[in-house]
Amino acid sequence: MTGDREPRRILVTGGAGFVGSHIVDRLVETGREVRVLDLLHPLAHSGTPGYLNPDAEYVWGDVRDPATVAAAVRGVDAVSHQAAMVGMGIDMGDIAAYAAHNDLGTAALLGALHEAGFRGRLVLAGSMAVYGEGRYRCPEHGVVGPGPRSTDRLAGGDFEPTCGRCDAPLAPEAIPETAPTDPRSVYAATKLHQEHLCAAWARESEATAIALRYHNVYGPRMPRETPYAGVASIFRSALTAGRAPLVFEDGGQLRDFVHVADVARANLFALDAPREVRGPLNVASGTPRTVGALAAGLSRALEGPPPRTTGEFRVGDVRHVFASTDRARERLGFEAQVSFDAGIAELATASLRAPAAASH
What we know:
Layout: E1 9-13, H1 18-29, E2 33-38, E3 57-60, H2 66-73, E4 78-81, H3 95-115, E5 121-127, E6 135-138, E7 142-144, H4 151-155, E8 171-173, H5 186-205, E9 208-214, E10 216-218, H6 231-240, E11 246-247, E12 254-255, E13 257-259, H7 260-272, E14 281-283, E15 289-290, H8 291-302, E16 308-309, H9 326-332, H10 340-349
Parallel strand pairs: 1-2, 1-4, 2-3, 4-5, 5-9, 9-14, 10-13, 11-16
Antiparallel strand pairs: 6-7, 6-8, 12-15
Helix pairs in contact: 1-7, 2-3, 3-5, 6-8, 8-10
């Protein structure tokens, strides 16, 4: 519930995209009136997707445009804000585009909601990228921040972070929402700023905002063959082309891979939650897996070549980050339902979104 009633007219920004379109489907299934605002950005779409739900209303336009977003928010009583540039991008040349689409776009949406006198619920698509490195425990010093992974150590195949105080090996742990944030990419910085903007708007407007920090989402409709895609899509694209998936470092990086159907369920839970429920909330499976296990699972499902670990690395990458799901379970009653094995088997043959433009 939002306030004392279930929201009926819901705006989904980015509702033609990977996660957003699954949210639209679930909302339509529950009998809601759904309006979608989507730019169909060429970095994400080669055209209008064929999977769009015909029972939703579609507004094609930019959330940053005042007239467009003002029309899109008119008459709605809840918002699912999924519109964003996602992924790590190509290089620092992406910085202005990320800030414009993610931060300015969110600010424009919040300004339009303010002008419309909106007092409902906004659910933000957040990201686990805001944490930076995950949570680690030193046998002597307890929970600590890891020391930096130096280029020399990475080049020598020493990928595990060590204690910043004594250089001892660290044990990774599930990261809770109370952990300090440490965004290490432009994308991560913009996602944290989105959370801050939404929280400030909610305090001033007597509305409610919940940030759902998605972990590594995978499933049907992922974009393929683009540097902005997730690692599951990149591995799948390699295998369907007959190539071995290339795994950085030694493949032992721990992540939490969560199916898009579960992410859509979490969004519905958040839209319908009591007003006192607030974020941020991790949205994840609760069971970490290695990147190597993801690649191997897809290789088996597609009967393709086994993954090849390259030893390559990116200095800005984090080693382990996976979620504590206690807060989402306690506050929303959310637990993931799609098992890793079932989800990977589905992904092996699922339709992925057509290739998008590779440059901007």
